[in-house]
Amino acid sequence: MSRRRNSEGFRVFQPEYTARSGKKRRSPRHHVEFRDHNSIRRRLPAFTDYSASVSFGRKVRELDDLRAVGESPRGDLARWVDGLTDDVRAKLIDWSILDQRASMMTLPLAEHIEDWHQSILNNGRTKTHADRLKTQVSRLITACGFARFARITELEVQTYLSGLTCSAQTRNHAAHAVKQFSTWMVRHGRATQSPVSGLEMLNVRADRKRVRRALGLDDLINLLNVTRHGPTRGKTTGIERSLIYWVAVETGLRASELRSLTAGSFDLVATPPTVTVEAGFSKRRRRDTLSLTDDLAAALRTHLASKLPSAAAFTIPGRTAEMLKADLKRAKIPYRDPVTGEFYDFHSLRYQLATNLVRGGAHPAVMQARMRHSTVRLTMDIYARVGKDGQTAALDALPRLSVGA
Q1: Each residue of 191-227: pLDDT tens digit?
Q2: Which run of H or E residues covers position 121?
Q3: 269 with 255: CB under 8 angstroms?
């Protein structure tokens, strides 16, 4: 057995073995031998390269010294631990050189993602929200071929995201999901650090592939009236669809929030009447109560009259965009403007609210509160689309100037 000693508390050697021919042979692979913090002799296979094996031995000794004083690896040593092979990590855990947290690193990524998904549900988020995050991260790790958390690299994640044929906002959603998952792994002691902490978000305003528009008042009223007298689509009557659009335009509630409403969510005898979205369904994770106009409240009283408080307020299909697209076609309103290329999908009903508030002269702070935005800039820059009518109104508001030639 070829053995080399050093003064760092371990030995690097190439063990000998007996071949089938009966001859003694030396293993091409070096091993590291040391006494752990319990004075027990341990051996670990290292590398064929001697220098690499010495470096490996130093790292193992450093881990054992930290374990002896009850400390965890940090920085470069933590990253080295994350990159260990499963068999080496298993031995270090069995010898109590690594703690139980390191054993979590041996689990397949799919198991970590399932636990993360359950954690999101336990925190009161909706199943739809939790499922969407899980799907985004699962698609990413499958496409990149990551089997273990330690195999995730920021460069490979960036490469995957840059190859997606979608808007910058959609890519940002996927990036945020994987960052959220990685942060959860660290917070719950399943990893020493996030491999994607430096992942940057794209500039959504510079790359908006789906630009939405708001309708003029006449087109909006036409859409609601034509839909009201339209056929039943799926299980949703024309009257109910028209009411769904009306509520969306007046409150700015998203499709998922509208689906969460029950008859009991509405207080139609209050002054003014209100609708309340529970925290578990609100994007802001807080209970939101929004006032309603008397006209909308009157229509809702008729619609909800026969429903129990716990019954769903509306029957809303999964593909709201297809539902609205069919009603737009019947009202002879283009889904996509042939000149500007702007869309009018279900989320455009939320844009419609912001634009209607601008047209009505609402103060930006009032608009921000109604839209439930974190900043007034988001309300004004993205959601408030005044269009040509607004530009004309702006000209009408300017003082008449008469300048001599």
Answers
A1: 778 889 888 887 655 555 678 889 999 999 999 999 9
A2: helix 109-122
A3: no
